[in-house]
Automatic annotation (TrEMBL):
<dbReference type="InterPro" id="IPR041796">
    <property type="entry name" value="Mre11_N"/>
</dbReference>
<dbReference type="Pfam" id="PF00149">
    <property type="entry name" value="Metallophos"/>
</dbReference>
<dbReference type="InterPro" id="IPR004843">
    <property type="entry name" value="Calcineurin-like_PHP"/>
</dbReference>
<dbReference type="GO" id="GO:0016787">
    <property type="term" value="F:hydrolase activity"/>
</dbReference>
<protein>
    <submittedName>
        <fullName>Metallophosphoesterase</fullName>
    </submittedName>
</protein>
<dbReference type="InterPro" id="IPR050535">
    <property type="entry name" value="DNA_Repair-Maintenance_Comp"/>
</dbReference>
<keyword id="KW-0378">Hydrolase</keyword>
<dbReference type="InterPro" id="IPR029052">
    <property type="entry name" value="Metallo-depent_PP-like"/>
</dbReference>
<feature type="domain" description="Calcineurin-like phosphoesterase">
    <location>
        <begin position="10"/>
        <end position="202"/>
    </location>
</feature>
Length: 373
């Protein structure tokens, strides 16, 4: 192009870390819910492709970990291939990550991909030219499950009239990472119009042209908060990409503090009705409960089952302590180790929550020893 700038804007969706096929072995999901969750991830993936059609997306970038190699079948990969084939106008560019590395035996090599799908198969910096839309996508794929080398050291672009995008799966946060350390400073030196990263499951804009897309559906309680895709427009002059929430569910971690005045029903209510019904069935919870409860009550199986029936999935971590009548226990045990312990603890600040909890926990164990004796 002579003197005329390429003002063409392309519409882009950046996703990755989808982990299709995941069996959720690292979670406490029951087998039925694991199966359901696996289907939900497929669903969300298909919704991303539907959105490509609806929004007339030119380019879908997949930044690694599209699927879980260990659990994926040829049927599964054919399902992806046939859905890509029906995309109305979107071109798909894929690099692989540590969960779906591409090598001789890889499922990627067992199907014939349609013309709109471009898989970067090299394990070294290379490019794919999408000539009709003036885009060059640079990047590389993983060929094994670990990669200590920074394979993006010697990077460049060769035609600034094109839109230049870098697509890669790696770790910008840890230069000693086993998951391909990426040197951000190095990336920033090259004038990419957009850098689409994968590997970190929480979406993050490093700056307005460099982003981790995160997993569109969170996979465990390490991935709380909103999840989705990154979408927008890119031209040689301007990059406008934003996060779009897209997940069916969120993982939620909560703290709830109980007190000694609560009865059985109060305890259930304070846990269940801290969330709306819609949220309880939509989201997945890990609840940390603490505080002091009536010494005759406990968070037993009945309580837990009643709570569980009102959530799609909830894990409860019980850190409550029983409300002891310290004075009475002291009088009864003045001359034994329980009495010594109470005396010792009373010398400290019992208004302090941590000290009070230490007192209760100590008592709990000493008193239960006494019962055994
Ligand atoms: Mn991943």
């Amino acid at each position: 192009m002579t003197g005329v700038e390429n003002m063409q804007k392309i519409k882009v969706i950046h996703t990755g870390d989808i982990h299709l096929g995941l069996e959720f072995k690292n979670t406490n999901f029951d087998p039925n819910f694991s199966r359901q969750r696996r289907l939900e991830i497929w669903n969300t993936f298909e919704k991303i492709l539907d959105r490509c059609d609806e929004k007339e997306i030119d380019l879908l970038l997949i930044a690694g970990d599209l699927f879980e190699e260990d659990y994926f079948t040829i049927g599964d990969i054919k399902r992806i291939e046939s859905r890509f084939r029906t995309l109305k106008m979107t071109k798909v560019v894929i690099v692989t990550g540590n969960h779906d590395p591409i090598n001789k035996g890889s499922l990627y090599n067992l199907v014939e991909w349609p013309n709109n799908v471009y898989i970067i198969k090299e394990n070294s910096y290379t490019k794919i030219e999408l000539e009709d839309i003036n885009i060059t996508v640079w990047g590389l794929s993983w060929d094994k499950k670990e990669e200590k080398r920074n394979l993006l050291e010697d990077i460049h672009i060769d035609n600034t009239e094109n839109i230049n995008i870098l697509l890669a799966h790696g770790d910008i946060y840890n230069k000693n990472s086993n998951y391909m350390p990426i040197d951000l400073y190095n990336i920033k030196k090259v004038k990419f119009n957009y850098v689409a990263l994968g590997h970190i499951h929480k979406h993050e804009f490093i700056d307005d042209k460099i982003a981790y897309c995160g997993s569109p559906e969170a996979l465990d309680f390490g991935e709380t908060g909103s999840h989705g895709i990154i979408e927008g427009e890119i031209s040689t002059r301007e990059t406008r990409m934003t996060f779009v929430p897209f997940s069916e569910r969120q993982f939620v971690q909560k703290e709830i503090t109980l007190n000694e005045n609560m009865n059985y029903q109060d305890i259930i209510n304070s846990i269940v009705y801290s969330e709306s019904e819609e949220e309880r069935f939509k989201n997945l919870y890990k609840l940390n409960i603490s505080g002091v409860i009536d010494k005759d009550l406990s968070i037993n199986e009945d309580v837990i089952n009643e709570i569980k029936s009102m959530f799609t999935h909830i894990e409860i971590i019980d850190n409550t302590v029983p409300d002891y009548d310290i004075e009475t226990i002291y009088k009864e045990n003045e001359n034994n180790i329980i009495g010594y312990f109470i005396r010792e603890m009373k010398g400290k600040d019992l208004e302090n929550k941590v000290i009070r909890r230490a007192l209760y926990l100590g008592l709990e164990s000493l008193l239960s020893e006494k019962v055994k004796l």
